[in-house]
Specification:
This is Zn(2)-C6 fungal-type domain-containing protein. It comes from Lepraria neglecta. GO terms for molecular function: DNA-binding transcription activator activity, RNA polymerase II-specific. By secondary structure, the chain is mainly α. The protein folds into 2 domains: about 180 residues, no CATH class; about 140 residues, no CATH class. About 60% of the residues lie in helices and about 0% in strands. It has 17 helices and 2 strands. The chain has a two-stranded antiparallel sheet with strand order 1-2. A hairpin with a 2-residue loop joins strand 1 and strand 2. Helix 10 packs antiparallel against helix 12 and helix 15 runs parallel beside helix 17. About 40% of the residues are buried.
Length: about 400
């Protein structure tokens, strides 16, 4: 039996995955049983070590035997950190995020102010957001400075692990006070999943396809949480970002290009009648695949209907948000139909290829899908491969 996919950080820490249903249930139970946070803010990895104040020592008495003290010196203890101590490494990452990354990560022209001002302000009150912010900043510096990327990759991994630890209790106990923090965290963690390196020091950390599975888990997790915090987010400074999760974007009933409509009609038939479906696939999976294909068509129509300039990045995430857990499990098992649909999703993601956090992830993902997919299904990769090439060529001409 195949093991359900988990995100890399949770697997490394042997912790329940926050973004799976089981993980959410465990976190909710842990939150209700705990009366105080279970983490130690002073342990290694935390960037917010509490200040330990020194109140002085008792002065030496005049009649003490100084010779004895010389023979048996007291063990030296390190002095407590000064209240004026600064962590320059963390300040470097924060400065880079505010001055550089906030302009390079944006998902819309209107979002510049949000990422430059609002998100850092939220991070000052929520440590898990601050650590996620610092991790994204470290990955961006690694992207900009290839000769120093190993150091920044390691710093990014440290902050990402800490962010996931700290946000678990908040995610299990959403309130008005942490609603905006949880919502923006869902964006940051997806950027981390896509931008994180697939290998460090020659050791494979993750595959591009597993990063896609990780993103889908994260989107599904935040979608399960969104109903309980949406009314608070709508009242706050992140309200306009809800459009990336909303289902009320108007779209045309059919595609402008009849050939695209014809392709999706054939794709829907394939998802319902692929040769191996009768051998090892339950009827529930057949329905799941067909529903995923129909939902993917709807996402294509939404992207096509977004007017130029309304959203700098079209709503490319809608499809992943709505995928059922059974589909994600089959994708983790490298089933042919989910692999083909992920290849078609990559066409939508290529709309955001100019952002640094996607980088060469699309090419690597398509390459991995081609390697995993049985030869008899390779024809289903021709259409998405050609569409990605056309989008890339159009963008090169516009640049």
């Amino acid at each position: 039996m195949q093991e359900k996919p988990k995100c890399r950080s949770c697997t490394r820490r042997q912790a329940p995955c926050t973004y799976t249903n089981d993980g959410l249930n465990q976190l909710a139970s842990a939150a209700s049983a705990a009366s105080s946070p279970s983490y130690d803010r002073s342990q290694p990895g935390s960037s917010f070590t509490p200040i330990q104040r020194s109140y002085g020592t008792t002065p030496s008495r005049p009649y003490q035997n100084h010779a004895a003290q010389t023979r048996r010196p007291s063990p030296k203890t390190p002095p407590p950190p000064s209240p004026l101590s600064l962590n320059m490494a963390h300040l470097e990452l924060l400065h880079h995020f505010v001055t550089v990354t906030s302009y390079a990560i944006t998902t819309g022209r209107i979002s510049h102010v949000v990422w430059h001002d609002t998100v850092p302000h939220i991070a000052l009150s929520h440590e898990f957001v601050m650590h996620a912010l610092l991790a994204v900043s470290a990955l961006h510096i690694a992207y900009l400075r290839p000769d120093q990327r190993m150091s920044y990759w390691k710093r990014a991994a440290m902050h990402q692990d800490r962010a996931l630890q700290l946000q678990q209790l908040a995610m299990a106990n959403p309130t008005r006070e942490n609603a905006d923090a949880l919502f923006i965290f869902s964006f940051l963690i997806v950027y981390l999943a896509l931008a994180s390196p697939s290998s460090v020091d020659g050791t494979v950390v993750d595959t591009p396809l597993h990063a896609a599975i990780q993103c889908i888990h994260m989107f599904r997790g935040i979608r399960s949480l969104l109903p309980s915090i949406r009314h608070w987010v709508e009242e706050g400074p992140l309200a306009h970002l809800l459009v990336l999760y909303s289902g009320h974007i108007k779209s045309n009933p059919t595609f402008r290009d009849p050939s695209t409509e014809d392709h999706f009609s054939k794709l829907l038939i394939f998802c319902s009648t692929a040769p191996d479906l009768n051998k090892d696939t339950e009827m529930d999976d057949v329905e799941s695949f067909a529903a995923a294909a129909s939902s993917l068509r709807a996402s294509y129509l939404k992207v096509e209907s977004v007017l130029e300039g309304d959203l700098y990045t079209p709503p490319i995430w809608h499809w992943a948000v709505r995928l059922p857990s059974s589909f994600v499990q089959r994708l983790g098992e490298r089933h042919a139909v989910p692999l083909v649909l992920i290849a078609h999703w990559c066409v939508l993601l290529s709309q955001a290829r100019h952002y640094w956090w996607i980088g060469d992830w699309l090419d690597k993902t398509m390459g991995e899908i081609e390697a995993c997919l049985p030869h008899e299904y390779s024809q289903w990769l021709e259409w998405p491969t050609e569409k990605i090439r056309e989008i890339n060529e159009t963008r090169r001409r516009s640049d």
